[in-house]
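Why do we bother with holo predictions? Because pocket geometry can differ from the apo form. Keep that in mind while you read this record for iron/sulfur cluster.
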Amino acid sequence: MQIKLTYNRRSTHPVEVGNICIGGDNPIRVQTMANTSTNDIDASVEQARRCIEAGAELLRYTTQGLREVESLSQIHEQVLTSVPLVADVHFQAEVAEAAAKVVEKVRINPGNYSKDASKLEERFLRLLDICREYGTAIRIGVNHGSLSERMMDRYGDTPEGMVESVMEFLRIAWAQQFMNIVISVKASNTRVMVDTVRLLVKRMARERMDYPLHLGVTEAGEGEDGRIKSAVGIGALLADGIGDTVRVSLSEAPENEIPVARDLVNYFADPHSPRYTGEVTAEVLDQIGDRPTIRYSSMEDDWQLFCLQAAAECGRLLWEYSAGEIELCNPSFSETKLNFLGKDILQASRVRIYKTEYISCPGCGRTLFDLQKTVAEVKKATAHLTGLKIAVMGCIVNGPGEMADADYGYVGAGRDRISLYRGKECVLKNIPQEEAVEQLLKLIESDQNGK
Ligand code: SF4
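The structure, written out:
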């Protein structure tokens, strides 16, 4: 059965963020997040320049407190371009309120916006008033693993719980006719991320809301695996016509994220892309065994582009047709290479697990160690542990919650200090970083030997 490849963008209202617009008929925007300390103005400005040169249309900064808000205003003055800045705020509503007076957009997390549920509405209304006065946009950003206790008690860490966390805030904003909001719902598990965004879109449609969406797979990792995982999750939604701005989160320099996001967006939204010129076909082959096979054929001769495009198309088709295999056809690449890529896509879609699964955050101003180097060390030491999910997270504040369903976690606990987790349980606290990989291996080995 030949599968028709189409693209009909979900209708949304435009949201003004500084002098760009997200949603409506505007192009799908590409953004990234700094991994410098926000208080290191020179490093942040230098990095901002590299990201803008790479094509970033928005730049986000971790904003832990009022000191970072002040730093943001200095970064803002020095990044003399039209690229809007976004403050990423957790835990402190007063920081979001202060940041809203300084930057073009503030990201808040409903899971930690207000501990006191009875004050949530009052506090959020105050933020809406400030944003209205200063023309600031808001991102309501929910992540799998960081729901409020109230939502966890009621729904558990489920798509329903994530959607309800967003809707609670949206209903307040909608009643005030505050439209300058973009929403994101992210998870490291691509299937969970896609199912949750689809559910959110249905729920918004039921309540006649048309807020635009920011797409991303959290803790996607780095290298080819990180790119394939991001393409599976983001691609499935872009193919649905969902998505108005995209961030590909890689445990690499933020400027590396931009071309990946741009290639994905172009593939779906550009009518001249190979998807629409007949150079790509997808079909479902006769059932072999108990599940069908997806055959994806392409003439794309650039390996990086082919990987992204195949992952973006095949992940969603695997789910939609309950398929269990992928057959990739491309005359430019060897059968061995295509077979490995097929397996990587099956793993990124969580259809089959062939190797160790890594979950690693992109790092931000909260990261106090060399994340990229550490991810490489952990990968080297644990590559033989097929089937295990191992997380490497930059900070203790958000890391443990957001490392999703990892079996083990390596989490930054302070400068050159690491805590090790078994699932959600912290088993070794604040150990020196130079011992951490060895201790992680010992922990896993002792668990596997049943000690
Ligand atoms: S887990 Fe911590 S260090 Fe990593 S991106 Fe999230 S907030 Fe930043």
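The chain has three domains: 9-214, 276-348, 357-448.
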